[in-house]
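Section: Multi-chain targets

For targets with more than one molecule, the full set of components is provided together so that the structure can be written out for the assembly as a whole rather than chain by chain. Components appear in the order listed by the source. The example entry contains two components.
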Amino acid sequence: AQTVTQSQPEMSVQEAETVTLSCTYDTSESDYYLFWYKQPPSRQMILVIRQEAYKQQNATENRFSVNFQKAAKSFSLKISDSQLGDAAMYFCAYRSNYNNNDMRFGAGTRLTVKP
Amino acid sequence: EAGVAQSPRYKIIEKRQSVAFWCNPISGHATLYWYQQILGQGPKLLIQFQNNGVVDDSQLPKDRFSAERLKGVDSTLKIQPAKLEDSAVYLCASSLNPQGREKLFFGSGTQLSVL
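Its structure, encoded as tokens over all components, is:
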């Protein structure tokens, strides 16, 4: 079964600085997708960024980018120019493109942004 | 567009009581998911619907949990009887289809406390 591991329960960053959140996953499949979701105190999970496994180019969305290392099964999220509104729980998720493709989430990383 | 609606937002019950949660997905989304998020963990899939049919309920504790999606739109998740370990946030999500690359849209969840 696929598993997702986030080894950093908590991280903090100074406003305007850069922070990287780590994620590793375990799978024997070749066709899958990886996601980073943000969960603020409102509890609503919001998609931050998505990466297709067959694409070598790292996905970017404004201040958010990923470092996708397929061979190492690593998928880290970099947040540049951190803002107070970035403070939240961040979840890494894996989803197979085959049948029974439920989205598997890591345990999350709580990000604190210091003014 | 309107998001995924869930109610109630909070619910407190005593063990052995029953409870029901309601979800209205984004219009046109054929796939609906119920997730359980225990404090300090990532969401875990309970059940996935495609229109009004069940695609995956392998992690649903069927002796006490039930879910339905009549007419392929709204869905309800019921727990009867509740146990202390059912205390969690119950998240509903929807997507256009069940393909792996599809973005999931989440509601704000129902926080259940079982005393």
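The longest strand of chain A covers residues 88-96.
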